[in-house]
Amino acid sequence: MNDILNKAIQSVQQSEIAFCKYITANDTGATGGHQAGYHIHKKSWKLFFDQPGIKGTNKDRFITIRWQDSFETESRFIYYGVGTRDEYRLTRYGKAFPFLRDENIGDLLVICKITSDNYQAFVLNCDDDIEEFLAALNISSTNINGIIPKQFQQTAEDKLIDCFTAFLKSLKLDFPTTIELANNARNCYNNSYGITSKIIQARPDVELLKWIDSEFQLFKVIENDRYTSRIQSHFKTVEELVITANTILNRRKSRAGKSLEHHLSEIFNTFNLAYTSQQITEGNKKPDFLFPTGESYHNPKFDEKKLIMLASKTTCKDRWRQILNEADRIKTKHLFTLQQGISSNQLKEMYQHNVCLVVPKPYLDSFPKPFRERILTLDNFINFVRYTQSQ
């Protein structure tokens, strides 16, 4: 989450009253209207006034607005009620104001009342940031262009925690299986933040990382519940302490090793890709994913150019060599990893052995610049598979 987005969310949560709307052509003056300035919905007068404007008169007040937590304007909120006009506008920003241009049309404007005369405002211009803002505050698309209801504030995280708690109470065993843990963490996150299939398909790299983080949070909730009292009690022997510690560590490793595979499967399901997971190939090897199917792989008449293999490893600096003989019919081995950064020498060696890295898009910048064009994002890889399966 970037800094401006995070500050916008926090400002809404901490403010007395907050408002959001999409910036329109009418706001910027692109429609040829008599005046530029943000139009504020009639029902949102409480953002600035104690009483609504009265038809037949104008009234205004001046306020200080801090934009993007960077610079301030002395702006004017005015109700135009004389003649045929009946509208509220926020005006006066100065000549160099950067958020009333044609390119701002479609951006999300957020205004938060901090004190009676001081406000904070943010402009979000990226689709991902706007969707993240709405999801974090659980704001429906029907609640844009108006006051953000208090019941929508701080509910997404609360819903996620409540979902984790409900799952913990439902457990009959000490720990769920890895797939049960992954599925429930993902469902809790999706339901709490309003994540739909359309959103997943628009940004699979981002949502995959969110799912992995949510599962880690859920695992910690369960782990703390199961082990807090044991750790706080006395261990009779060093051996008893070691056994408990090893149990905890081994369970952590087991979960982390399967987590990535489970969530990748769900991504592929969302895109309706044909694949088989853990299909036995030569030498009893089991690639994590074969596209389109394991049956296709074992059919000697199936075109090898349409066969794709993907291995998944959270880290791969040393373990990437393990995948080289997992599917002999497939020359190029694709490897998805959460590893952030690999040396140029190691990357050269990987490509010499026909290993193509796939990483989450946000991690791409952590790799040496000369290799970035050769590394696929998850979205790139999905498009490659879809193209292959469409032929």
Task: Explain the overall architecture.
The chain has about 400 residues and is of the alpha/beta class. It folds into three domains: about 5-155, At1g16640 B3 domain; about 165-265, 3-Layer(aba) Sandwich (Restriction Endonuclease); about 275-390, Restriction Endonuclease, CATH 3.40.91.80. It is about 40% helix and about 20% strand. The protein has eleven helices and 14 strands. It has helices at about 5-15, 25-30, 125-135, 155-170, 180-195, 195-200, 205-230, 240-270, 295, 345-350, 380-390, and strands at about 15-20, 40, 60-65, 70-80, 85-90, 110-115, 120-125, 145, 275, 290, 310-315, 335, 355-360, 375. The strands form two sheets. An eight-stranded mixed sheet has the order 2-5-4-3-7-6-1-8. Strands 9-10-11-12-13-14 form a six-stranded mixed sheet. A hairpin with a 4-residue loop joins β6 (about 110-115) and β7. α1 (about 5-15) runs parallel beside α3 and α4 (about 155-170) packs antiparallel against α5 (about 180-195). It is globular, with a radius of gyration of 27 Å. The model has no long low-confidence stretch (mean pLDDT about 85).
Question: How would you sum up this structure in a few lines?
Answer:
Residues 219-382 form the Restriction endonuclease type II EcoRII C-terminal domain. With 391 residues, the chain is an alpha/beta fold. Helices cover 39% and strands 18% of the residues.
